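Entry — protein

Goal — C-alpha cells:
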Amino acid sequence: MDMTRQLLPPWLSLLSMYIWILVFFTRPHKEERFLFPVYPLFCLNAGCSVAAIQKIYHWIFSRYKPQHYTISSNWIAISIAVIFSLTSLSRSAALFYGYHAPLDIYPSLHRTADNPKVHTLHANKQVNVCIGKEWYRFPSNFFMPENWELQFIESDFKGQLPKPYSRQEDATQIIPTHMNDMNLEEPTRYIELSKCHYLIDLDVPISTPHEPKFSKFPDQWEVIERQPFLDKERSDKVFRAFFIPYVSHNYVSYVNYTIYKTTRRNKRKTF
C-alpha cells in the first residue's frame, strides 16, 4: 500500500490557520492572546515552507542526481534554523532590556512595605497603590503586600478597566455591577488622586491634563524607586525590536518607570 495516499496534503493541514487569521485579523480589536492557539500551526507552516524551499533548490541544482532532496539542501534548513535562533535570542533580549521594569518595580513594593523609614503607615491600614496610563502593565496581585490594594486614577484611556472579584463567598459566581459589553469607560473604577499612598507611573516627556509628569511635583510626590524603560518614540525601530550587544544602546533611549510616595500626608502628619 502506498502510504503517501493516506497523508493529508499540506494545504489542508494549514487551512485552519489561515481561517483563524482571516477571522481574527479582520477584527477591530487585536491582542496576542487571540493568536497563541494557532502557534503550533505557525511552526508547521514554517516547516512546510523550509521543506518547499529545499525541494525547489534540489529541483533547480540537483534534480538529475539519484538522491533525496534533503541531501543537497540540508544546509538551507541548518542556515534558517541558525538565523531563526539568533534572531529569537536577539528579540528576547530586546524585550527584557527594554521592558523588564514593571517586573522589577512591583516586587520591590514588598521591600517598601518592610522598610519603616519609607512606609510609615500602620500595618493594618489599607494602602492604595495607584496607576493611571500604566494599568495594562500591572502583572498580578500576587506582587502586592498584605493590605495593599491596586487602585485606578483617571487617564487618557477611555475604555473599561478591570474590576476585582467580590470578597463575598462564591465571588466568581456573582455577576459584577458596573460592567458593560461595549468596552466603555466606567467612572466607578477611579479613586481620587488624593487618596493614593503610592503611585506607579512611566515618566514620559509628553504630559496631558489627565497624564501629568508626576516627577515635576516633588513637593507632592517623592521618588521611591525607578527602573529604565525603553522610550519607543525616541528609539530606532530596528534596535528597539532586536538587541545587538555593544550597538543597540547607541540607538535607543530610556525613560523612568517609577514608584512615587505621596508627601502630602507627611505635611499633614497623618502617617
